[in-house]
């Protein structure tokens, strides 16, 4: 029992790992002995985060544009050339677009849906052989999808593609869980609430105090909150957990008052 949350020695890939939620998860993995590959579209940011995390463990930068098939294939080839198997895949890379309903463009809708839904599916597809190589009945390989409370609740912000895309991410996790269970691969989703990051900076500036006031635990998320649930899902403690969506939101989804 004392080693239930031990993830040391595993190999992980965290997409969008250079900042925000991805960086929080990557740092948690690296600090707990996971050899962690991080990808991000901007090479300089990806390299800088990997260099910082390499001071506490093993972290490798693999810049990639996952909005294209070429970017996905290049990332997969890099992982394949360095590893015989992959224990943990965190599909975190994402995009958001805010604009009034009347002018919300088709190009923005396509961008958000491609990066948030389409790309994680095809990256997972391409990495299946490596995930299967790292999987056993006792210790399945893990797919962790990063969704959002906006995929569970309705946002008041004009981010019309984002919430539907994250709802799709949650359902994709459940669908993958059903189809991959016999291959000893679990798939679950994390639905973060408000966590300070570059992506949420505008939201925090505009209505951060209001959001926190409406959060039962009366604070925003911290890096250790996100790292903790990711480590749980990657560990022996969650080897019998698949097809679930875990809100990490201070109670916004599950404990908010209704009047």
- What number of domains? 1
The major sheet is characterized as: 7 strands, parallel
User: What is the tally of beta strands?
Assistant: 7
Supply the CATH architecture: 3-Layer(aba) Sandwich
Please state the CA-atom Rg, rounded to the nearest Å.
Answer: 17 Å
Q: Please name the CATH topology.
A: Rossmann fold
Stretches where pLDDT is under 50 for at least 5 consecutive residues are none
What is the tally of helical segments?
7
CATH class: Alpha Beta
Order of helices and strands: EHEHEHEHEHEHHE
Structural class: alpha/beta
What's the CATH H-level homologous superfamily?
NAD(P)-binding Rossmann-like Domain
Could you estimate the helical fraction of the residues in percent?
40-55%
Coarse shape: globular
Strand content: 5-15%
Mean pLDDT: 95
> How far apart, in Å, are the first and last alpha carbons?
42 Å
Task: List its traits.
about 260 residues; alpha/beta; Rossmann fold; seven-stranded parallel sheet; 7 helices; 7 strands; globular
Protein described:
It contains 7 helices and 7 strands, in the order βαβαβαβαβαβααβ. With 259 residues, it is α/β, with parallel strands linked by helices. The chain has a single domain (11-248), classed as NAD(P)-binding Rossmann-like Domain (Rossmann fold, 3-Layer(aba) Sandwich), CATH 3.40.50. Strands 3-2-1-4-5-6-7 form a 7-stranded parallel beta sheet, sandwiched between helices. Helix 1 (20-31) packs across helix 7 (223-234), helix 3 (69-82) runs parallel beside helix 4 and helix 4 (106-133) packs parallel to helix 5. The chain is globular.
